[in-house]
Amino acid sequence: MHAPPIPVEALARRERLRVALLAVGEAGPSREPAPLRALRAALAGAAALDPDNWLEAVSAAGLLEEAGEILRTTRLAEPHGPLTEMLAPRLLPLALKMQQRRAARWQLDTRRTLIRVGYAKGKGALGFDEGDLHAIFLHAFRFEGFGLALDLGKRPRPLLTLGLPLPVGVGGLAESMDAVLKVEPSEEPGLLMARLNRRLPEGLHIHHWEPLPGYAAPVVDLAQLSHWQWEVAADQRDGVAAGVARFLAVGSWRWDRSGARMGAPLDLRGILLEMRWEAAGLSFATRMGVHHALNPLKMLGAILDLAPGDITGLTRTAVDLKPDVRLAQGERYEAKLKNMYEDAVLLAGGSNITLVDEDDDEPIRLGPPAETP
Predict the structure, then answer these.
(1) I need a labelling partner for 268 at 20 to 30 A (CA). Which of 120, 157, 287, 291 fits?
(2) What is the C-alpha end-to-end distance of the chain, expressed in Å?
(3) CB of 206 closer than 8 Å to CB of 118
(4) Do residues 214 and 199 lie in contact, with contact meaning Cβ atoms separated by under 8 Å?
(5) Overall pTM surpassing 0.70 (yes/no)
(6) pLDDT tens over the chain, length 373 residues
């Protein structure tokens, strides 16, 4: 059987992403570490590579895992390339050992730093989905030489995580992502953001750079409300106004989403809040928490009897976050991480120490502080 054809729209989006990634790389000279640039050039056939000298250089730079991932990705595309076949038996075992050492020392690595990056997504970037944005930002960080730490997965991936999801066609002024860097850069945040912004395509702009402790809660766990502004097209205004009035006139509005995995119907009156008309259009808020992944286009479409594709001009303008309790309990949280690491080392080493469960210490509360009676 022949594979079904790829939809035209999917092909167009793939081409837009390819062009955007190419532009990220061409926006200026690459600052990626020299051993990785040398490997990429050699795999592309643009330069020769001395395996012995190169392996020594990439090992000294602590980049064996990154080089191993580049090699694995190339082997998937060209399984029998001569350079990949020659390097794989030497590089991949070294990368695996590096990964194991890194995992064993993870809790003791004090140089790693979490950066919460705020950015805007506007015209020119509305056609990118979450995966596209992730790839674009990864490229920008790589070409600017910002060393992203790797996770502890079997196939380690750079620790760059986007915050709240944003659908294709929807803009955002207060979007966020968390980047975990191997070492915090010494440059001023303004200079760092300017370097990245020179790489980004039209419609993407970084405006916030905030170092945080590694135990900080992700935005998705802190978000309470998303605020939205919809510039309603003139020919839709009357119909939208009537639909909004009907929605606000009832006490509940059941949304029975299609699909077996969608769960029970939702009451949109408890999720879509603060709807009002302003000079710029329709403003409203959506409740986050367990509802953070709901598509605002589909929710609006459900109450207005519109297809999501017919709703354009929607922008998230702000996100309300609750206080991060982890930051307020930093000393206790760091101590627990240290104790967990020490216990793991003792158990792995076959120690004959008996572990005693003590109830005296209060548990960490990852939520709003309890109210005092």
Answers:
(1) 120
(2) 68
(3) yes
(4) no
(5) yes
(6) 566 778 888 888 899 999 999 999 999 999 999 999 999 999 999 999 999 999 999 999 999 999 999 999 888 777 778 899 999 999 999 999 999 999 999 988 888 999 999 999 999 999 999 999 999 999 999 999 999 999 999 899 999 999 999 999 999 999 999 999 999 999 999 999 999 999 999 999 999 999 999 999 999 999 999 999 999 999 999 999 999 999 999 999 999 887 546 678 899 999 999 999 999 899 999 999 998 989 999 999 999 999 999 999 999 999 999 999 999 887 776 655 554 444 443 444 443 433 333 333 333 323 344 444 4
| Cα-to-chain-centroid distance, residue 324 | 19
- Neighbour tally for 215: CB within 10 Å: 16
Closest by CA position to 143, among listed 45, 51, 248, 20:
20
Measured CA distances, 54 to 22, 36, 67, 350, 368 (Å): 26, 10, 11, 39, 51
Residues found in the chain: 373
Pairing of strands 113-121, 171-181: antiparallel
